[in-house]
Amino acid sequence: MPLAKSVHSVIVLSALAVPTAVAAESAYMSTYSDLDFAKCEIVHEDSEFGLVEWRCAGDHGYDILATEADLRLYLAYQKKGELHGAPVTPSDTETNSDLSSDEAEAGDRSLGQTIPPFNNLGPKLEWRLGKEAGAEPFATIVRYRYQADPDETDEGQVLVVSRFREGESCHVAYIDALANRNANKMAREIADKYAKGGQCPEGSAPVLGLGGEILQ
User: Fold this and answer.
1) Up-side HSE of residue 81: CA atoms within 13 Å toward CB?
2) What is the helix (H) or strand (E) element at residue 127, kind and residue range?
3) What is the DSSP string of 27-93?
4) What is the distance between the terminal CA atoms of the chain, rounded to a whole angstrom?
5) E strand or H helix at 163, and its extent?
6) β-strands 62-69, 28-34 pairing
7) 109: which residues sit within 8 A by CB, 6+ positions away?
8) With bands split at pLDDT 50, 70 and 90, how would you rate the model's confidence at 202?
9) By the 8 A CB rule, do 195 and 162 touch?
10) By C-alpha distance, which of 197, 205, 208, 187 is closest to 30?
11) Residue 165 to residues 76, 81, 171, 198: CA-CA distances in angstroms?
12) Long-range CB contacts for residues 212-216, cutoff 8 Å, separation at least 24
């Protein structure tokens, strides 16, 4: 079943929203790395467009490619020595009249992806991988903090589940970190079930569980 259809399944959403009384031991595990741009290499900077691109040390032989543009942070993942597509900057998308505003906000996947509202990132990045020796990570979970309303000071938080392989990174699902009591558990279950195989969703990634209307 294609990923874009399977993650929208009402049955799947219901199962994820209500934790089971006795959960089977997961075949997967998490490791964590820091997201501290002060310790990252600046790859490119363009003050005219307010653009900064970093390469940060990740985990398990992967680098984190981060770009700040238009008050948003884009992330992608690259295995050392692996090509990650042609470089595309947000300034390219913003000046291309053939692209919709949604495409300009989401960015090209060779650059990475972000979420539509103005945003920032939490200090940690979670990697999901198998427990067997030498297992490769297949997904990340990162907390975005965003401005829920431009006229208010309220802050929203969303867990973004991403998958990556063969030089391509993409968002798989969004979970509102404030509206869902078991948001971290939900994010891990989504990563383990949908980020390990299948294809990237067509269009925007689905919002799962409660809340997250601004991301839909």
Assistant:
1) 1
2) strand 119-130
3) SEEEEEEE--GGGSEEEEEETTTTEEEEEEE-STTEEEEEEEETTEEEEEEEETT----S---HHHH
4) 22
5) strand 155-165
6) unpaired
7) 76, 85, 168, 169, 170, 200
8) confident
9) yes
10) 187
11) 11, 13, 12, 11
12) 212/158, 212/174, 212/175, 212/176, 212/179, 214/116, 214/117, 214/146, 214/148, 214/156, 215/115, 215/116, 215/117, 215/158, 215/174, 215/176
The pLDDT of residue 15 is above 80? no
The first and second tokens of residue 123, run together, are 């200090």
What pTM was estimated for this model as a whole?
0.78
pLDDT at 151 over 70: yes
With beta carbons less than 8 A apart as the criterion, state whether 106 and 70 touch. Answer: no
- C-beta atoms surrounding 134 within 10 Å: 7
Residues near 203 by beta carbon (within 8 Å), at least 6 away in sequence: 4
Strands 28-34 and 155-165: unpaired
Name the pairing type of β-strands 207-208 and 168-176: parallel
Q: What DSSP designation does 113 have?
A: B
The single-letter code of the amino acid at 45 is: E
Residue 145 and residue 39: Cα distance in Å, rounded?
Answer: 21
Q: Which residues contact 141 (CB under 8 A, 6 or more apart)?
A: 125, 126, 128, 159, 160, 161, 162, 184, 187, 188, 191
Residue type, 174: Y
pLDDT digits (tens, 9 = 90+) for 27-78: 999 999 999 999 999 999 998 888 999 999 999 999 999 999 999 999 999 8
Contacts of residue 66, defined as CB under 8 A and 6 or more positions apart, other chains included, come to: 35, 37, 40, 53, 54, 55, 56, 73, 74, 75, 112
